[in-house]
Structures are given as structure tokens and as C-alpha cells.
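Entry for the shared binder. Reason: the reviewer on the internal report wants the predicted structure included alongside the sequence.
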Amino acid sequence: MAVGVFRCTIVVVIAVVAFQKSILTVQGDCMLDVNNYPWSPGLAGCLKYNLSALANPEGFRITDESNNGTIYYVNVCGNIQTSGLPKLCQSNPPAPAYQFWENVQCPYLGLLANVSVYPVDPGNSSAGVRVVYHNGANLTGDQYADGRIDYGNVGIGDPVQGKRIRQDSAVGDGPSARAVIIDIVCDPSAGVGQPERAYEWPLLTYRIKWRSAHGCPVTTTAAACPAPPFEANWRNLAFRPRPSWYDDVKFGIFLHWGLFSVPSFMNEWYWEMLVSGVPDVVNFHNRVYGCSGIMPDKFPCTGEEFKYNDFPKLFHAELFDADAWATLFKNAGAKYVVLTSKHHEGWCNFPSKQHWNWNSMDVGPHRDLVGELTDSVRAAGLHMGLYHSLREWYNPLFLEDNANNCTDPKFVDEILLPTLKDITNRYKPEVIWADGASGDNPCSRDSTKYWKAPEFISWLYNESPVNRSVLVNARWGTNSGGDYYTGSDRYSPGKIVPQKWESCYTVQHGSWGFDRTEDIAMYWNTTFLVHQLVETVSCNGNLLLNVGPTADGRIVPAFEERLLQMGDWLKVNGDSIYGTKPWHFQNDTMQERLWYTQSKTTGEVYAISFDWPAVGEDGKPGDVVLTQVKDAPTSVSVSMFGVDGTLASHQAADGFHITVPAIDATRMPCQHAWVFALTGMN
């Protein structure tokens, strides 16, 4: 359907099994029929949404102050009439959205020939609707050297075939957007509401958030609404809404556990370092376990042979208590857990037909470690996820694929994809954390052509038993998409990242797997880790904190102490972390060790200070000054987590002052950081 013939009515269907694509049909009113999922309590059949009040042929205007005042015009129900646009935009074809820079250019965010609709939250159809204008799935996705994607400048009504026609950056022209995503969130108190610019991710995907009473369903019917599935390409998969549970939990535990836990020497890349001839590793191995056979001329060794493949007989996990681990993680305040199901060595912590005699059931512990921990974590009320390395360093099929330039990807087809589907069906993880998408040949780094990630993820979103709750990260190879961004290891941007992201961070400085050579000075202290959590959440991220269990199944006291101390802090201050969102400011300009979050439900603003004010000559602590707050309402009240009563506060020229009470050191509500709740803040 060409956007040029759009009238203002939408009838939309979405499949029962998964929140899938459907094409909008033009009729007369701006109405949506969206399939309600059977797990939404008290609702059945199709939910009807009436967006007529949001239809505006002149376009709703959005000013994005975070992007140099860029202006957007958006119409959720069809094209914007050019007569209602700034003069600079009027020479462009009709489109549902325009982007406008004063006296510079006005590209239309189209030509967008398709419209799709999904629930805003896959687990709750009544939470709102996502309307997506996009260029369709049959596009080549050609890219310029600078990363822009151009789908061509075809005439209104012409089919978009994906042919790239280069556009020079002339006024009113330029590359078309891949998609405009408008999330209309149910908020009964918001009236019509006002759309806001959200962020751009992936490239040329423009996102708009709109809290509106019209994002709430008006009625239900008994009829079912079938729809086609998500397609096996990153463009279409990017339209799938992220399950809401992940945004709210904020804090998880990462576990690197495998055969590398037996030597627990340096890090989890022990086998690779051994084969590569790293002197410290080879000498350690030959001395402690036996002759590795690695570079015998360089590393002479006498005695019995002991190769890496012999480590399963030393991996017993005899002290592993899944219930005790789950209790520890819950007491730490974590809300989700991600366990290594398989690292780059290829060893599986679960029974695997594809890894015969190289898994924890066939040899070593003779236990399903993944299954045991999954059951215990869920029993403790936490979400469970699985890390899974895509590559396997020395798997013959993986090496063969690299040698033949990936022309016949046997490793992916015969090992990886069947294993991923197996662990999904068996353990029903709510996170699949991919890693290791690379080999010696550059061909083995491509997320689509080699790893076939979109093929697996489309199955995950459409047919798997966790299609409404599962998330994937964005480490599936080059050009990878995903439900959230992971960045590099120990990613800590220190500023807001518009798309949802996660920082995976280690307690030990140098290793993900347990390293018994590191002393206590090589463990981050609890204060540092609490600060890392606060900064991450303030900037729109989750913290996935890694600990490395021992080969016998213990979490050593140095890890345990830090986790329990974080849990103590969260017992007092958890409301400033869980279920929050970034505020207008992340940290304070002058007080750099002060960060902000805001409750999604109450709107309370939380100022989290890493420093307790210095005590003055009168024996009282000084004020906490929020220099970013310039004009606080007089009705604002301030309280401190863990302290009864309301604190004195006042607005001054240098910021908003909070008078901190004098508290005896033995009665401090917590250590590491202190939270001040501001009620009634704009």
C-alpha cells in the first residue's frame, strides 16, 4: 500500500502466538484491532483502539532539545498534508513524518510503503500499541561508506524494490528513513498527550513515544486476529517491542563457569592461551597438571601427558548447591541471572547431543548444571538467562567452515542452531546472551550470512515457548541487531545512551572466570560496585555483575561479601533503582558524584549522592546541593531513604539545597551512597 493514498483509518491484526507484523488497511476511522494474547488477565479476542483523536493531517510538532532543537512532524494515522508543514518541507512528497532543521533541510521520513502494528509490551496487549511505518522487508539494505542506508527515491505509489539511488544532500532531499516507530502507551490520565522524540537505533530508525489515554483499548471482541510472523532479517526483527520486565529489573548476576574453572589460572581463555604458547600458562600447566605437548622444543616437559581435553575428570562440582546460589543472588538484590551454558571452549554445562562426551552430563560432574540452577533461580522468583558462545575454538566443523570461506556452514547448521533451539525448548531462558561471533576468517563474523542469527531469532520471537518474554543481546556478529545494546566488556559510557543497554562488569579486575591467582586487591570493593550500578541505571542501562564460581561449585567469600553488601544497600535504596527511568539530567554538573533517577510510576525524582556532606564547625553536616535544579516548585518535599520524616530544603541561586540531618555513624541507614527522594518535582 502506497503512503500517498493514506486516508485516516487503520484496521490492524496481530497473531495470537506472537506480536507480529500486519499491514494496515485504509477504511474510514482511525481504529486498530489488535489481537489480545491469552495470557493477558481478563481479556480475550481482539482489543480495539480508537486513535481518531491522534489523527492530525497537519502533524504533531515535536522539538528534540537533546538533538540541537531538531523538529519533527508526526501523524500516526497517515500522511501529513504538505500545506500544514513549514515552507521548507512543502516540496517533499506526503509522508507520515518529517524531520526539520531551520533553514537547512527538511527530509521526509519515508517513502514508507508499509505499516505494521504490535503491542507496546509483548506480555500485556492492553499496555498500548506500536505503529511502525517502514520500507518493507524486501529491501537490499545497501549502505554507503558512512553507514547511511538509502532505499531510493521512487515516486508515490511506486513499489519500493530496494534499488539504491544515491541522493546528494540537497535541500529537501536525502536518504529515506528505514522506519518511524510510534509507541502509543496507555495512560488513562494523559488525555490526547503529546508525542516525544525517543531515540534512533538501529541506524535511520526514528522512534517516537506518546503517552495517551487513546493508547488504552476501548473494547474487546471474541474474534481472533491472525497475522504473518516476524521475518528472518534484522530490519523486521527491530520492530519487535522489548518485553517490559527487563527495563524494570536493572540488576543481574553473570556467571562464567566451565572447564576453565579447573585451572582457574589467569582467565577463561586458558585453553586458547595454552595452545598459543603463552609462557606463563604453558609452564603452569606442565608443572601442575602434566605435559601439555605444546611447543615441546620451547617448553620441554617430562612426565605424564595431560591435555586440556583431560580437564573434565577434574571438574566435579561436588559442592554445587543450586538453591544456595539462588538464595545468594536474591539476597544480593539481583532480579535476573545469566549462566554460561557454553563458552568458547565448546564445553556445555548441560546434556547436549551435539557435544557428545564434552558436556557436564556425559563426563565430569555427571549433572545438568544449567537445569539445576534454572529450577532454583525460578523458584527464588528471579528471571533466568543463558550465555551461549557462538564459536567453538577447536571444533573441527568450525575450523572447516573458516577454511572453506564459510561456503558450507556445517558448524552453524549442524551444531549451533540445533543447540540453541534445544536449550530454548528445554530451559526456556528469558535472556539469550550471544558472544564470540568471530573466527580466523572474516566471513565467520557476519551475523546473517554465516551465523544465521536472524533465522534463529525469528523462530525465537515467533514459535519458541518464550516468545513473549525472551530478549537477545546484540553480539551476534557484524551488523547485529538485538533487544538491547551490550557494547564492549565493562561498558560504562558515563552519559545517557538512548537505546536500552547493559553493562557486563566483573568483580575481579582481570577475569570473568574465577582466577585463584588474584589477591583481594584485585577485587572491586562494594562502594565501587554500588556506584557502578547507580551510574548505569541513571544512564538507561542494566548492570550484569559477573562472579566466577570454582570448579567444585563454590562462590568464594570475596564474591559473596560484595553481593550481600550490595543487597543490604538495595534493601534500603532499591526504589531508586528498580522500576526507574532516566531523569532529565543524569549527573549533577558541579556535584559529579551525584546521580539522578526517576520512578516510572510515581514520578518521584531520586538524587543519589556518593558523598556524605562534610561536617561543619557546628557539628552538623552541610547541605546537599542539586545544581541542576534551578526552579523547583515550592511544593516539593524531600525525604531520605532509611530516615524518618521530611528534610528541610530550599531553592537558591546555586541550586536546590537539601539540609541533611546529623546522624550518628552507628545509625546510618546504609553505606556507599545516600538517596534523597524529591516528591512533586517537575
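Summary line for the report: Residues 1-28, 37-44, 137-176 have pLDDT under 50 and may be disordered.
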